[in-house]
Amino acid sequence: MRESDRGAGVSLGAWTSPDVGTERPVLLVPLGSTEQHGPHLPLDTDTRIALALCERVAGAGDLPNDEPIVVVAPAVTYGASGEHEGFPGTLSIGQDVLAEVVVELGRSAGRDYRLVVFVNGHGGNAEALARAMTTLEGEGRPVVSWSPRLTDGDSHAGQVETSVVLALAPDAVRLDRAEVGVTDPLSELMTELRAGGLRAVTANGVLGDPTGASAEEGERLLAGWVGDLIAAIDGALGGPSARR
């Protein structure tokens, strides 16, 4: 993958239609959410993270120049966040609508792109995304999905997400409000969470402990995720040897 040499850079929205037709780039589509992230993180945390990962991959300057250009689509800023109902600020479009959105985006991309990669920043989107991918793959669409790996017991607004947002936008983090949430493994909370949402398992909306977060840890996590995402894209394209 290589960065575009056009003035438009890595943002698809700044390209023109003929540019896309000529280049047939790899398209990264960030999937986020607008939902509570405890008392200390912004509502667009998942969207910020997904978009930043896409931009870092698309703008990586040390990638082979014989690989496809990578561009980043405008982010999908609403997701399936029904489990956060009851916490102010959360906006959700639900599983069914999100699945349809992803399917229609994958279909509309057609053959204009060599590959469409849905980069998911919100765990609650996973079910809808999996359903959509089954449909698109069954239709023979050039699509793949990817999500960053999170630590069990630190899955929402804990040390991981707080560290990453500190690395991306430190002014958006209210560290004075950061407090420990529920740190039990998510697998042990899932039955109760599915029945009653996050309100049933955590009073402050946090699954994890954000108090030890740091920007340095956030940069380390981002670097690892970028490497994983590049590897996933390379694998979906068939690897370097298959493209030469």
Secondary structure tally: strands: 4
Mean pLDDT over the residues? 90
**What is the correct CATH architecture of the domain at 12-150 and 222-243?**
3-Layer(aba) Sandwich
What sequence of helices (H) and strands (E) makes up the elements?
Answer: HEHEHEHEHHH
* Cα distance spanning the termini: 13 Å
Radius of gyration: 18 Å
What is the CATH H-level superfamily of the domain at 12-150 and 222-243?
Creatininase
Note the total helix count. Answer: 7
CATH class of the domain at 12-150 and 222-243: Alpha Beta
Write the layout of secondary structure elements.
Blueprint: H1 17-23, E1 26-31, H2 45-58, E2 70-72, H3 94-109, E3 115-120, H4 126-138, E4 143-146, H5 159-168, H6 186-196, H7 215-236
Parallel strand pairs: 1-2, 1-3, 3-4
Helix pairs in contact: 2-5, 2-7, 3-4, 5-7
How would you describe this structure in keywords?
single chain, 244 residues, alpha/beta, Rossmann fold, four-stranded parallel sheet, 7 helices, 4 strands, globular, disordered N terminus
Structural account:
With 244 residues, the protein is an alpha/beta fold. Helices cover 38% and strands 8% of the residues. It has a domain at 12-150 and 222-243: Creatininase (Rossmann fold), CATH 3.40.50. The chain contains seven helices and four strands; from the N terminus they run αβαβαβαβααα. It starts with 16 loop residues before the first helix and ends in an 8-residue tail after the last helix.
